[in-house]
Amino acid sequence: MADYIIAIDQGTTSSRAIIFDKKGSIVESGQKEHEQILPRAGWVEHDPAEIWRNVQEVIGLALSRADLTRHDIAAVGITNQRETAVVWDKTTGKPVYNAIVWQDTRTQEIVDRLSADGGGDRFKDVVGLPLATYFSGTKITWILENVDGAREKAEAGDLLFGTTDCWVLWNLTGGVDGGIHATDVTNASRTMFMDLETLEWRDDILEAFGVPRSMMPEIRSSSEVYGKAESSSLLRETPIAGILGDQQAATFGQAAFNTGESKNTYGTGCFLIFNTGEEIVRSKNGLLTTVGYKLGDGPTHYALEGSIAVTGSLIQWLRDQLGIIGSAPEVEKLAEQVEDNGGVYIVPAFSGLFAPYWRPDARGAIVGLTRYANKNHLARAALEAVAFQTRDVLDAVNADAGVDLTELKVDGGMVANDALMQFQADVLGVPVVRPVVAETTALGAAYAAGLAVGFWGGLDDLSANWQEDRRWEPSMDDAERDRQLRLWRKAVTKSMDWVDEDVK
Q: Closest Cα to residue 198, out of 294, 91, 266?
């Protein structure tokens, strides 16, 4: 019997393939970054063809490093950057435009147009989401309205839409030669088009956005055999059996299967998910209502989510745009050279403010600068901004759920930063807990795939795999925490009302 599961993690900055064993431990991996295409302010794109080439390459890297073949792999799981939209020609397999990334803000005029009839929450009762540039729906509309010939091809039934899980699945299962055009309920719940109750596309909402139904993938559960890898793949004949959007996958990988459990993932952005079980909880405090997971024919599990656009990408900005650091780990060394932030606060509203504010008119701000401030203070303020934004979201979760969170499970690349994790515990006032396997996004996709093919017997097996690696206890006194939060929230107000008609 095959002893391993491989997960394809198609993320915002890179694609990875990670091989897991039955204990949920990492055996080997391959990773490759793709280009971040920034044509103008507020525009963020990826080349879907480059992403697919990289996915194939990292699969080969992981297998070769582990000295394994397809015969050793029981199933494939896919996880992905959720709202990034790809539109391609089903007859040629070629994208009609670059993938428009979830961070992209170019569709604000479309959001405003749709909001004119019914406001920003026009579809929220049905889909759980406010009208915002963040989600896939307006990105499809923009492509159809701005790419020559796209509207005509879409109306003729020749164009397909998918988030990057769907793009990978379609190519992995044959592409133009019978590729499977499907997505799972978690990704579908981020388009603005899926009814949370029926788990089906809403024709009336598709019509409002001007998107033909023929473009949309079939909605499937998060854990079932969708098809097998095609003959030219290194994984040929291996079942593709799990799909979860990256944040839902991380929640699943953290074994947060039950009502009231939660996690926070620190990646390009930060995403806190709170499991509400089989109940659809509609947020009154700026959170999103989304699908958490659905295993085969089992019940749908829902969640509240706080989405923060810029966290890890703020550290990349310090590295790539300002040149303050040469590599991401250096930010911790700089931050530890000063006792505090020197009065400096960074509000990284590069794409506006996401949860719980939802202010597209906001832009990034650095406040509290004096001549005393140096690059060490900026580094510390950048790390602290991640923790402060998480506190804002957690306050909203507590208000919606009616029960205060007692500890926060964390994962993602930034949890290796001890200074950040300690400050996070301090500013939350609750313990922060890191698991042994911090790559919970890929692990969650592996779990979903493994369950579908009987590699694991059930959720109890997965829960038994979870192990605590480290715990940070809060050490900041209440008065200092309150002072810091007051100044942070004052800084947030300074980032708002920046975008006028002549400022993009």
A: 294
Task: Compute the C-alpha angle 98/213/185, nearest 5°.
Answer: 80
Map tokens 């999103």 to a residue: 288
Q: How many helices (H) and strands (E) does the chain have?
A: 16, 21
Structure tokens at 178: 């019978």
Q: Residue 110's closest CA among 134, 81, 86?
A: 134
Round to whole Å and give the CA distance between 296 and 422. Answer: 39
**β-bridge partners, 162:** 86
Place of tokens 């699969």: 59
46: its two tokens: 């990826």
How far apart CA 328 and CA 382 sit, in angstroms, is 12
What span, in angstroms and rounded, lies between the C-alpha atoms of 309 and 284?
Answer: 20
d(CA 459, CA 253): 11
Report the candidate in 4, 3, 64 with the shortest Cα–Cα distance to residue 30: 64
Radius of gyration (C-alpha) of the chain in whole angstroms: 22
Q: How far is CA 354 from CA 14, 130, 181, 271, 282, in A?
A: 23, 11, 30, 11, 17
**CA nearest neighbour of 388 among 476, 497, 276:** 476
Nearest residue to 221 via CA among 456, 454, 449 = 449
To which residue do tokens 């109940």 refer?
Answer: 279
Q: Do 117 and 56 meet the contact criterion of CB atoms below 8 Å apart?
A: no
What element of type H or E holds 58?
Answer: helix 48-66
CA distance 186 to 354: 19
Query: Token digits for 129?
Result: 């989401």
Contact in structure between 200 and 188 (CB atoms under 8 Å): no
Distance of CA 382 to the CA centre of its chain: 20
pLDDT tens for each residue of the chain, 504 residues long: 799 999 999 999 899 999 999 999 999 999 999 999 999 988 999 999 999 999 999 999 999 999 999 999 999 999 999 999 999 999 999 999 999 999 999 999 999 999 999 998 999 999 999 999 999 999 999 999 999 999 999 999 999 999 999 999 999 999 999 999 999 999 999 999 999 999 999 999 999 999 999 999 999 999 999 999 998 889 999 999 999 999 999 999 999 998 888 899 898 888 899 999 999 999 888 899 999 999 999 999 999 998 888 888 899 899 999 998 998 889 989 999 999 999 999 999 998 888 888 898 999 999 999 999 999 999 999 999 999 999 999 899 888 887 777 889 998 888 988 999 999 999 999 999 999 988 899 999 999 999 999 999 999 999 999 999 999 999 999 999 999 999 999 999 999 999 887 765
Q: How many residues does the chain have?
A: 504
Eight-class DSSP state of 298:
S
CA 40 to chain centre: 23
